[in-house]
Design a protein that fits this description.
Blueprint: E1 7-12, H1 20-24, E2 29-34, E3 39-43, E4 55-61, H2 64-67, H3 79-88, H4 101-144, H5 146-151, H6 156-159, H7 168-175, H8 177-197, H9 231-260, H10 263-288, H11 294-322, H12 338-365, H13 379-407, H14 427-467, H15 476-490, H16 495-500, H17 503-518, H18 529-562, H19 564-577, H20 593-609, E5 613-619, H21 621-632, H22 635-638, E6 641-646, H23 650-657, H24 659-662, H25 664-673, E7 677-680, H26 737-750
Parallel strand pairs: 1-4, 1-5, 5-6, 6-7
Antiparallel strand pairs: 2-3, 3-4
Helix pairs in contact: 3-4, 3-13, 4-7, 4-8, 4-9, 4-12, 4-13, 8-9, 9-10, 9-11, 10-11, 12-13, 12-17, 13-14, 13-18, 14-15, 14-17, 14-18, 18-19, 20-21
Length: about 750
């Protein structure tokens, strides 16, 4: 670096990212740090990228963490798991000080219930695979014998009476290969992603007194030195979930022979079942226990790993018990016990959802700064409900479509001599009904938001020209486009209420479905005539919608294999859901922040140690990474580090939906840590907004308080044939206000006498 440089403008891109060349606004970028997944770039010669004299520009390109490898696209199939992991961080919690006993218990209960939901989704995913492999193929096809072998020759090795694998117990064991393979693939994928993403460690000084303070008692939890070091917790959760999946397969496998056995064999089977259930309970406790700290976490991870290995051993014992010869044992109908296990898991998840809503409401009431919190603090439970619904819809879609495909029947109710009869659990019909209603209500909600935006646009249209000083030279088409952009950006705060309104019918359906599940009744059982046909139509629509949703996710994954733009779009969805560590579910998409934040911390520390000032310039999601970096920096660096955020969702989204981590109190602490903090935003931006340091917009706000004009000019500029485009969320760095604001922040980290006076945008 040249000796005359006094500061570095370190740009951090947002969702969707961009290449180093685009971010540098110059020639090809040269990587000088990091690797192909996340690295630091500068241009040669550096004079091409100087926004200000004696200030070099660097960029941190982290987009390949979410879109660099084509396999990342298939994480979308685990969208329900990602939602539940996201809900873990959406709790409304009071920051700082010693919480009351009631508040502490509610917060601990929130931890337990969310992690129990995460474990329930793992079991639900395992049961979906078991329903195809063990129920449809290993049991129902084998039970139909020669009929299944004749109509589905590729299953003849199981169903043909002359096959050595055609016995009832052997069919179950062979069918168990499907869920076991799924668990093994997810296990391997989880280990591989954990080794790559959770491996970064920031170059920090030794721990100081106060670093042992619990995260829950910190004003800014993201300042805890171990916040982005979750490998121990990740390992414990992974072992607990894999062990739970293995014990679930073992339970489904043991139930059918236990219904047939008598005498000594039955005693052996029930003892084995008891040990399996006890092991499953240990896995639940391992997943839901409190975080014991670094040393205790490593010990807990080792214990959970041993329980996981024991669960695998029990599955082998269950297979041996099931294949034991039993003269006269012949399967009929659906797999005994499978529907009951599925129904009880769903009932438990529904009851836990009710408990979670109560706990979230209590936490919200105990939060002193709650006026800014979205959805009355119920965003986390709502996200969990949506995750459970999608998990159930995926399960129902896989089971129903697999049964339809294996049967070869033109419809679920039509039988012919060339098709087979396969049954599916009654819970599938309730999920299909719920999904149909949710889709219909969502369409109504989107329509209502569109109507609201149109009304707001009409009201704002007449004032646009006057704001630019052209009250007598109006341009109607320009007024319309600007007003429409502002109106669309303003409905961001209304969208969550549309989602929350879906909870009432979902809970009603959940209660009805739970009662029907206990009796194994399908939706609409007992109806006749027009009502029965209407019910069949609704269930068919729900099944098609669920299968279509799965197909779209698979299509996105396949498209991402060949098309980088598609892969980057998938990466945008990844960015939103995987900023947070995997603290609830180990199979959620990997947390890129556990790799990006330590790299940013190390780079910033090395620059300040050279005597350089650093301006962390973050756009969109990059501003959240920049804030997390400032929280992690040691005290000795802070006087030379300034924060410049633009298009930032820190307050409008993160403070409202993650109040325990980005609430006003935490933002005030962040504001005090940085030498200066400036925030640029626009009223046409649907994501960004002002950063309020108090709980209400009337309090202190990070400067500037007023938005940037968008577009910058109302009419065409001289020499231009077209008017300036409306930028909404993009290209803040090309706005005229950006270099002026950067000059102020650079002055704050250059001057020893303190920050420069604010000059305005």
């Amino acid at each position: 670096m040249e000796g005359r440089d006094e500061a570095v403008e370190l740009r951090i891109h947002g969702i969707g990212g961009g290449g180093a060349t685009t971010l540098l606004d110059a020639g090809p970028g040269e990587r000088f740090g990091g690797d192909g997944l996340a690295g630091f770039f500068r241009s040669r010669p550096t004079s091409h990228t100087r926004t200000l004299p004696r200030t070099e520009r660097e960029v941190f390109v982290w987009g390949n963490l979410n879109s660099g490898e084509v396999t990342r696209a298939f994480w979308l199939l685990l969208l329900p798991i990602m939602l539940v992991n996201l809900a873990y961080w959406m709790r409304p919690r009071r920051l700082g000080g010693t919480p009351s006993r009631g508040h502490w218990m509610a917060n601990r209960g929130y931890d337990i219930v969310v992690r129990a939901h995460a474990l329930g989704l793992t079991i639900l995913l395992t049961l979906a695979a078991a329903g195809i492999g063990m129920d449809l193929v290993g049991w129902q096809c084998v039970a139909q014998g020669a009929t299944c072998a004749d109509l589905r020759p590729w299953l003849g090795f199981l169903a043909s009476p002359g096959s050595p694998l055609s016995s009832t117990g052997t069919g179950l064991v062979v069918g168990a290969v499907v869920p076991v393979l799924l668990v093994v693939v997810l296990w391997r994928l989880s280990r591989r992603s954990g080794d790559r993403y959770e491996a970064a460690v920031p170059d920090r000084p030794r721990q100081t007194a106060g670093d042992d303070e619990p995260i829950s008692r910190r004003t800014a939890p993201l300042s805890h030195p171990l916040f982005w070091a979750g490998r121990g917790l990740f390992g414990r959760l992974r072992s607990a979930h894999i062990g739970s999946a293995m014990t679930t397969i073992a339970v489904v496998m043991l139930l059918p022979p236990l219904r047939f056995d008598h005498g000594v064999l039955a005693v052996i089977g029930w003892v084995l079942m008891g040990v399996v259930l006890l092991t499953g309970l240990l896995c639940v406790l391992a997943a839901c226990r409190a975080d014991p700290g670094p040393i205790g976490e490593r010990r807990a991870a080792r214990i959970a790993a041993r329980v996981r290995l024991f669960a695998v051993l029990l599955l082998f014992l269950a297979c041996a018990y099931t294949v034991w010869p039993r003269p006269g044992w012949q399967g009929t109908g659906e797999l005994p016990g499978f529907a009951a296990v599925l129904h009880w898991v769903l009932i438990a998840l529904i009851l836990l959802c009710v408990v979670l809503f109560v706990l979230a409401f209590l936490l919200h009431r105990g939060n002193e700064e709650r006026s800014h919190v979205a959805m009355l603090g119920l965003g986390g439970p709502t996200t969990v409900v949506l995750g459970v619904l999608l998990g159930g819809v995926f399960t129902a879609a896989l089971g129903s479509q697999a049964a339809q495909w294996l049967s070869g029947c033109p419809s679920s109710g039509a039988l012919s001599r060339d098709c087979l009869s396969f049954g599916v659990p009654a819970a599938y019909s309730w999920f299909q009904l719920a999904f149909t209603i949710v889709v219909a209500m969502s369409l109504v909600g989107v329509g209502a938001l569109w109507v609201v935006s149109r009304r707001r646009a009409r009201r704002a249209r007449r004032d646009v020209a006057a704001e630019y000083g052209y009250a007598t030279r109006r341009w109607p088409a320009r007024d319309e486009s600007i007003a429409r952009a502002r109106a669309l950006a303003s409905v961001t705060e209304l969208a969550p209420w549309v989602v929350l309104s879906l909870m009432v019918p979902l809970f009603v359906l959940g209660a009805m479905g739970s009662a029907a599940a206990l009796r194994s009744e399908h939706f609409g059982a007992g109806l006749h005539g027009t009502a029965a046909r209407l019910v069949d139509l609704v269930l068919t629509v729900g099944s098609v919608l669920g299968a279509l949703f799965l197909a779209v996710l698979v299509w996105l994954g396949r498209s991402a294999l060949r098309d980088r733009p598609t892969r980057e779009v998938v990466g945008m969805l990844w960015d939103i859901g995987s900023f947070w560590p995997r603290a609830a579910h180990p199979l959620a998409p990997p947390c890129y922040s556990e790799r990006a934040v330590p790299q940013l911390v190390s780079r910033t520390m090395s620059l300040t140690d050279l005597g350089l000032g650093v301006v962390l310039s973050g756009h969109s999601q990059g501003s959240v990474l920049a804030a997390a970096t400032v929280w992690q920096l040691p005290e000795r660096c802070l006087e030379r580090v300034a924060l410049l955020t633009h298009g930032s969702p820190i307050f409008r989204l993160y403070a409202r939906y993650f109040p325990a981590y980005f609430g006003p109190r935490a933002l005030r602490e962040l504001h005090g840590r940085a030498a200066m903090w400036r925030n640029l935003w626009r009223t046409t931006d649907p994501i960004a907004g002002p950063v309020h340091l108090d709980a209400c917009p009337n309090g202190a706000t990070v400067l500037p308080e007023r938005p940037l004009p968008d577009p910058r000019y109302y009419h065409r500029r001289p020499g231009e044939a077209v008017a300036d485009p409306i930028q909404t969320h993009f290209w803040y760095t090309r706005d005229e206000a950006y270099p002026r604001t950067l000059r102020e922040t650079v002055g704050a980290v250059r001057d020893a006498d303190g920050p420069a006076a604010y000059q305005g945008p």
